[in-house]
Design a protein that fits this description.
The complex is a heterodimer. By secondary structure, chain A is mainly alpha-helical. Chain A has helices spanning 2-33, 37-40, 57-65, 68-100, 103-115, 120-133, 140-146, 148-164, 169-176, 181-192, 194-210, 213-218, 227-234, 243-276; strands at residues 236-237, 240-241. In chain A, a hairpin with a 2-residue loop joins strand 1 and strand 2 (240-241). Chain B has a domain at 67-259 and 286-305: MetI-like fold, CATH 1.10.3720. Classes of the chains: A mainly alpha, B mainly alpha.
Chain lengths: 279, 306
C-alpha cells in the first residue's frame, strides 16, 4: 500500500515538474502580454499573476504600431511557396524511389536524406553569395529558393516510406487492367497517400516557421522579415524591450505552429522509422 | 504514341521523376558545400569577388585566435552537457508519459511545446525569464529568501544577472538547449519503448526481475540503437546551432563568454563580410557531420541486411 502511494506520488511529482519546466515560459508569455506596464515593471510584483487589472495595450501596440502582421504574412507566403515547391519536387522523387528505382535508387535515396544532415550554418556563407549573385538579398524569394534545401530531402524520405507502406498489388491490378503508370499513380496511389501528403505539407510549413538562420543571413529589410527574425530584431530597439508586445507576439505565433506540429508528430516519426526499418 | 510508350518504361520514368530533386540538391546543396571548402582556402570577402586561393592561411589564423578557441570549447561544452542532461531527463519523462492518465493530450501538448514552437520565439520567453531586473526566477529565489538579503545563500544582490555573468550565461544557454531538446528525446524514446514486446518484460517480471534489473538488462540494451541515433542527431543539431545563443546572449557577455562556432562564423562571414574566415570556421562542423553521416549510413546498411 505504502509502496503504491510512493509510486503514485513520484509519478505526479515528476509530471508536475516537467509540465512546469516545459510550459512556464509560455505561461509567463500569456500573463505578460495582458499585464499593465506599471504592474509588469515592478520587480516586487508576482510575475506569475496579475496584480492590477489586465490591459490590451501591448496587443494594440503589437498589431497596430509594429510590423508584426507583416512578419506573419511574410512567413505565411514563404510557407505556401515552399510547400508548393516541396510537393512538386518530392512526390515524383519519392514515387520513383519507392516503386521503380532499384539498387541505385536506394543509394540515391540515402544520399538525398544525408543532405538533410548538412547544417544551415555550414551552407549559409556560400549560399549568401548565391543569393546576392542572383540579386535576391532582402527578398522573400531568397528564402523560397533556399528553404527547399532542407524540406525536399526530408519530405522525399518521408513520402517514400509512405508509398512503400502501400502494397504494390493495388497499382499492379490497375496496370494489368490497362491503366498507364502515370494514371495508376494519380487514380490509385495518390488518393490513398493523401494523409502522407498532408503530413508533408504541415511539416514543411512548420519547418519554414521555425527557420531562423538563413532568414537572419539574407534579410535585413524590416518589411521583408519573417516571424522569427522580425520578433527578435525589430521589437527590441536599442536597449528598449517592448516586453508585453514581444511576449504576446511570440505566444500568438507559437501556438498554431505547435498545434499543427503536435497533431502530425506521430506520423512524422513513424514515417521516418519506416523509411529506415521496414524494407 | 511513342512518347507514352517511353513513359511506361521504368528505366526511363524512374530517373525522369528523380531528375528535378537531384539537380536542385546538386545546385543548392552540393555546389555550396564544395564552395564552403573552396572559400575556406581563399581570401574571398563580400567586397572582393575575385578571390585567390591562399592555402591554409585562414586555418592558421583562426586556430591561433583566442576567440575561436573559446568558441570551439563552448560549442563542445554546450553540446556535451545539454545532451547528457537530456538523456537522463528524457528517460524519466518517458516513464511518466508512457502511462495512461486523464488529460494526457493536453499534458503532451504542453510538454512538446518547447520543441514544436519556433525556438527563436521560445527563447524570447527566456530573455524575460532571465532578465537582469524583472526575472521571474529571481523573484522566486527572493521569495524563498535565497537571494537579495544580507545572509541569503545566493548573495545579497537583488538579482542573479543570469545573462550578464559568464558562468551563469553558459548555464542559461544550456538550460534553453535542454528545454528545447527534452521533448524530442522523450518522444523518440517512447516510440522505442513501445516497440519492445511486452511479453519479454512480463516474462522477466514473472521470473522475479525488479524494475532496475529490467531497465538495465532488457529495456536499455534493446533501446540502445534508438538512443544512439537520437543522441547523434541531437548532438549534430546542438553543435551546429546558433539560434539559441544569438537570441539569448549574442555570444556575450564580453569577451565572447557564450560564443559558439556557428555564431562566430556568422559574425565574421556574414556581418563582417570575411567570407573566407567564416567558411573556414564553419568547416569545423565537417568532421562531426561526417562522423554522424558514417554512423547513420552504417545503421541503414545494417537495417537493409536484417
Amino acid at each position: 500500500m505504502l509502496n503504491r502511494i510512493i509510486i503514485r506520488g513520484g509519478f505526479y511529482g515528476a509530471l508536475v515538474f516537467f509540465i512546469i519546466f516545459s510550459a512556464s515560459p509560455f505561461y509567463v508569455m500569456l500573463i505578460t502580454m495582458f499585464k499593465r506596464g506599471h504592474d509588469l515593471f515592478n520587480p516586487n510584483n508576482n510575475p506569475f499573476f496579475f496584480n492590477e487589472p489586465i490591459t490590451l495595450e501591448h496587443l494594440d501596440l503589437l498589431f497596430t504600431q509594429t510590423l508584426y502582421t507583416k512578419f506573419l504574412l511574410n512567413t505565411f507566403l514563404v510557407g505556401i511557396a515552399v510547400v508548393a515547391i516541396t510537393i512538386i519536387f518530392a512526390v515524383p522523387a519519392a514515387l520513383s524511389l519507392a516503386r521503380m528505382a532499384g539498387r541505385w535508387g536506394e543509394n540515391l535515396g540515402i544520399g538525398i536524406f544525408l543532405t538533410y544532415l548538412i547544417p544551415p550554418t555550414l551552407l549559409f556563407i556560400p549560399l549568401s553569395r548565391v543569393v546576392s549573385t542572383l540579386g535576391l538579398q532582402n527578398s522573400l524569394w531568397s528564402l523560397i529558393l533556399v528553404y527547399p534545401t532542407f524540406t525536399v530531402p526530408f519530405c522525399t524520405w518521408l513520402l517514400m516510406s509512405f508509398f512503400k507502406s502501400i502494397p504494390r498489388e493495388i497499382e499492379e491490378q490497375a496496370l494489368i487492367d490497362g491503366c498507364s503508370r502515370i494514371n495508376a499513380f494519380f487514380k490509385i496511389l495518390l488518393p490513398i497517400s493523401i494523409p502522407g501528403i498532408i503530413t508533408v505539407i504541415v511539416f514543411t510549413f512548420t519547418l519554414v516557421a521555425h527557420e531562423y538562420i538563413y532568414a537572419l543571413a539574407f534579410i535585413q529589410d524590416s518589411g521583408e522579415k519573417t516571424i522569427g527574425i522580425g520578433m527578435t530584431t525589430e521589437l527590441v530597439r536599442g536597449d528598449v524591450f517592448y516586453w508585453g508586445a514581444l511576449m504576446g507576439g511570440a505566444l500568438i505565433a507559437s501556438i498554431p505552429v505547435a498545434i499543427l506540429y503536435t497533431l502530425f508528430l506521430d506520423r512524422i516519426i513513424s514515417g521516418l522509422a519506416m523509411g529506415t526499418a521496414k524494407r | 504514341m511513342k512518347e507514352r510508350y517511353l513513359l511506361e518504361r521504368e528505366n526511363i520514368l524512374a530517373p525522369l521523376l528523380l531528375f528535378p530533386v537531384v539537380i536542385y540538391v546538386i545546385l543548392l546543396v552540393g555546389f555550396p558545400f564544395v564552395m564552403a571548402f573552396v572559400y575556406s582556402f581563399s581570401n574571398v570577402t563580400v567586397g572582393n569577388p575575385d578571390y585567390k586561393i591562399v592555402g591554409i592561411r585562414n586555418f592558421i589564423d583562426i586556430i591561433g585566435d583566442k576567440v575561436f578557441q573559446k568558441s570551439l570549447g563552448n560549442t563542445f561544452i554546450f553540446t556535451f552537457v545539454s545532451i547528457s542532461i537530456v538523456l537522463i531527463l528524457s528517460h524519466i519523462l518517458a516513464e511518466v508519459l508512457i502511462r495512461e492518465f486523464r488529460g494526457k493530450w493536453l499534458v503532451r501538448f504542453l510538454i512538446l511545446m518547447p520543441w514544436t514552437a519556433p525556438i527563436a520565439l521560445g527563447t524570447i520567453g527566456y530573455l524575460w525569464f532571465l532578465d537582469s531586473v524583472f526575472s521571474p526566477i529571481d523573484w522566486i529565489l527572493r521569495s524563498f529568501g535565497l537571494l537579495g538579503s544580507p545572509d541569503a545563500l545566493l548573495g545579497p544582490m537583488s538579482n542573479m544577472y543570469w545573462l550578464g555573468r559568464p558562468g551563469l550565461a553558459m548555464v542559461s544557454v544550456i538550460l534553453v538547449h535542454v528545454w528545447r531538446l527534452l521533448p524530442l528525446g522523450t518522444v523518440i524514446l517512447i516510440a522505442g519503448m513501445n516497440s519492445i514486446p511486452r511479453e519479454i518484460l512480463e516474462a522477466a517480471q514473472v521470473d522475479g526481475a525488479g524494475y532496475f534489473r529490467r531497465l538495465f538488462n532488457i529495456t536499455l540494451p534493446l533501446l540502445f540503437p534508438v538512443i544512439g541515433v537520437t543522441v547523434l542527431f541531437a548532438a549534430l543539431f546542438t553543435f551546429t546551432d546558433m539560434t539559441v545563443v544569438w537570441v539569448l546572449t549574442m555570444g556575450g557577455p564580453p569577451p565572447h563568454s557564450t560564443q559558439v562556432l556557428a555564431s562566430l562564423a556568422f559574425l565574421k562571414g556574414i556581418q563582417g563580410g570575411d567570407l573566407a574566415q567564416g567558411a573556414a570556421i564553419s568547416l569545423f562542423f565537417f568532421p562531426v557531420l561526417a562522423g554522424v553521416a558514417a554512423i547513420v549510413l552504417g545503421l541503414v546498411k545494417k537495417a537493409v541486411v536484417t
